[in-house]
Amino acid sequence: MGEFELIRNYFAAAPCAQTGEGVALGIGDDCALLTLPPGEQLAVSTDTLVAGVHFPEVCDPFLLGQRALAVSASDLAAMGAAPSAFTLALTLPSVDAGWLQEFARGLNVMAQTCSLRLVGGDTTRGPLSLTLTVFGHVPAGQALTRSAAQVGDLLCVGGDLGEGAGALALVLNQRTAPAAISETLLARYWSPQPQLALGQALRGKATAALDISDGLLADCGHIALASGVRLRIERERLPLSAALLGLLEKDAAQRAALSGGDDYVLAFTLPPEFLSGLLDAGWPIRVIGAVEAGQGVVLTDADGQDITPLTRGYQHFRETR
Ligand code: ADP
Ligand code: MG
Fold first, then answer.
1. Least C-beta-crowded within 10 Å: which of 42, 129, 163, 239?
2. How far is CA 6 from each of CA 25, 32, 86, 127, 173, rounded to the nearest angstrom?
3. CATH assignment of 3-139, among 3.40.50.720, 3.40.630.30, 3.30.1330.10, 3.30.70.2740
4. pTM of the model
5. What's the pLDDT tens digit per position in 27-74?
6. Which ligand is nearest to the CA of 7?
7. Topology of domain 154-300, per CATH?
8. Which residues make up the CATH 3.30.1330.10 domain(s) of the chain?
9. Which is the closest atom of ligand 1 to the Cα of 118?
């Protein structure tokens, strides 16, 4: 099977690759053509996933397709953008029809979940890696950036933390757990649900937002730096799921919530007056701390003591000291 046949069979023919709202021209020409609603800005984000770094060399291609797109779509959620389209640059060691079929099926399921259309990409030979670029749109000036958190805001998250990190030991077959626990955690790892609707509901309310990919402490550090404020996280307020507490002791679960990555839950700062309206509307928002004057991120225990750990999360190129 040649490159063009592969593109045609597995990607151009996928339901998510058909043109529709916002996509005037999809796969097959030199560029795709996207239409933006009047007065809106284009939100763009790229993520690369490398085999052996971001996912195990041997893994289920259906799950990989789902996860790859979910991880990218989560960036649109964090910006408060509505989803439009994505491209896929795929590097494959060889053409394996069964693998491609399953990968495309997983990609398609997540594309339908997220209302994202596949509009193009590139296909090359080499060590397995995926680069996805997602496109969304947001009314001009309403995107949720990282830089406008205000002293006095609440620090909130959009759901339970630590499950992605807790699942990793199961993904890597380093440990096992009863089915009820492992199924929940593995689903969270392989099929994170980008909080696209929550992100859009936070427009005009949250002052700063991001999605937690590298761990809560590390990611909150980005908001603190960009906004010139200090974020205080109260350890006892970290939301931990029953599944995670079934796998790990409470202190290990808290560490997973603080420093593990892969949760793809939104973290955001919110002026207190907006909290009750959002909770009444049913959004799964948990307050975990507050924005204060100062810099950096501090973790406090129930007595308000500073218990900030030294290790904060994952970095590909960690500075040496
Ligand atoms: P070009 O030579 O202009 O780069 P290609 O031959 O690489 O074009 O691709 C032909 C068409 O197929 C383009 O519209 C491109 O966006 C699309 N395409 C290539 N690879 C993929 C892929 N993995 N998924 C989706 N679309 C793809
Ligand atoms: Mg090309």
1. 42
2. 20, 19, 18, 17, 32
3. 3.30.1330.10
4. 0.94
5. 999 999 999 999 999 999 999 999 999 998 889 999 999 999 999 999
6. 1
7. Phosphoribosyl-aminoimidazole Synthetase; Chain A, domain 2 (3.90.650)
8. 3-139
9. 25
